[in-house]
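Exam prep: given the inputs below (a chain plus NDP), describe the expected output before reading on.
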Amino acid sequence: MPAQIGVTGLAVMGANLARNFARNGYTVALHNRSVAKTDALLAAHGDEGDFIRTETLAELVENLETPRRVLIMVKAGGPVDSVIDSLVPLLDEGDIIIDAGNSNFVDTRRREADLAEKGLHFVGVGVSGGEEGALLGPSIMPGGSKESYAALGPMLEKISAHVDGEPCCAWVSTDGAGHFVKMVHNGIEYADMQVIGEAYNLLRTGAGLEPAAQAKIFEEWNKGELASFLIEITAEVLGHVDAKTGKPLVDVIVDSAGQKGTGRWTVQSGLDLGSPISAIAESVFARGLSSQRDQRAIGQEVLQGHEVAVDLGENFVEDVRQALFASKLVSYAQGLDMLTSAGKEYNWELKLDEIASLWRAGCIIRAELLKDITKAYAADEKPANLLFAPAFAEAIGAAVPAWRRVIATAVQLGVPVPVFSSSLAYYDGLRSKRLPAALTQGLRDLFGAHTYSRIDVEGSFHTQWSGDKTEIEAEDTH
Ligand code: NDP
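Solution:
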C-alpha cells in the first residue's frame, strides 16, 4: 500500500512527527539524508505503525499516493532549499511539499511563489510543542493554498493537540502565514518567559524567597488566571535540586539566555510593520543583555546602583502575580495586534479567534487565558486591541495598582524589569489623551520640514522656522 505521507528529515522533530502520523493510522514513508537515522527510528519504534523505509528521495516519492505529500523537517535555511531542489524534478503537478520546520516566513513566501509557478503546492506549517508535542499532538499552524489544505488538513488535524474534541490545527491563510503566526507565537513565548523571570527575580531579590519556596508559589499561581504550561514548568524547574551540588538547579545554571532566532525575526518583522511590540522586543533584548557576560562582569564593578530600601508591603507576592498577569496580557495583545498589521500588509485573512484557539493546547504558550482570548475575538464586535475587549479591559484595569507598585519597587531596588515596565508604558501610552508625539512632529518639522497635521484643520502644515515663523499649508511629501 502506498504511503499517505512521506517525511524527510528524521532528527528528533521529524521522527516524532512521523511516529505521530503512524500512531494515528497513516502509512508513513521515511527518509533521512543519512540512512542511520531512518534505521534507528525503525529499530526503536518500527512497531508503532506502518512505516516504509526508503534510502533516497526518489524512493520516498515512488512510495507515495497521489497527490503526493512530502513533509520536510530538516534544519531551517539552506537545507530546506536544497531538499526542495532535489524533490522538484521527482514530483508531478498538484503534489504538496510541506515545510514543518521553523522557517522564516519570508523564505516561505519565496518558496511558495517559486513552486506555484511549477504547479506544485508549497505549505509552510508552523509547529509548536517541542519534541513531546510533535509526538503527542502539537499546535499546528498551516499556511499555503486553501486547495492544498483540503488534501493535507485532515491529516494535520488528526495528529494535532485537541481541546474538547476540537483540533489545534486550522488553515491560517495563504503562503507564509503559517510560519508568520508560529513566529509571533514564539515572540509571545519570549515575552511570557521573560515576565516569569522578572517575577522570579523580584521575589528572590526583593522578598528573599528561595527557589523551593517560589516553586510552591508558582504551583499556586498555576491554579488561577495565570494557569499555563510555562507557569507549570517554572514550578518544576524552581523546585529542582542539582544532584551534584545539592543547590537549587537554577543557581548553578549560567544566567545567559540563548536564542535560535524566531524572537529576533518577530522583532525585525514588527519593525518592518511599524507594529509596537515593545514587550516582545524587550524580552529579546533582555536575552541579548544576559549574554553579554563580559560587559556584565565589568558593570558589576564600575556601575553604581544607589538602591533604596523599600517596604514591600504585606501583599508583595500577590502584587507581583498581578504585575506578571498584566504584563503577560500586554505581550499577547501586542502579538495579536502585530498579526492584524501583518494581515493587512500581506493580504492574509487572519482570524484571531481561530489563531488563539490553535494555541490553547499543544504549544509552549498554551494557557487558560487563550480560551478567553478566543472568545474575545469570536464576538460579533471584534476588539481593535485585545486590551479593549471588556473582559480584558476589566482584568488588566484591576491589576494596574499592583503593577505600578511593583515597578516602582523594582526601580527602587535596582532590579531590572524591562518587560513589566515597557508593558505598563504601552498600556499608559494606549490610554493617554495626548502623547509627546506632537512635540516630535514639531521638532521634525523644524529640522527637516517634515510637516505636521493640526488638530483643528485638515491638511499638512509647515512652519517657516528659519523665516518669519508663519505657517503655510504644505504637500506632505516627506
Ligand atoms: P535539526 O534542525 O537539528 O536538523 C537535523 C536534520 O536536518 C537531520 O535530519 C539532518 O540530516 C537534516 N539536514 C541538515 N542539513 C541537511 C541537508 N543539507 N540536506 C538534507 N538534510 C539535512 O532537526 P530538529 O528535528 O531539531 O528540527 C527540525 C526543524 O524543526 C527545524 O526547522 C527546527 O527549527 C524545528 N524545530 C521545531 C521545534 C518546535 O518546537 N516546533 C523544536 C525543535 C526544532 P542528517 O541526519 O543526515 O544530518
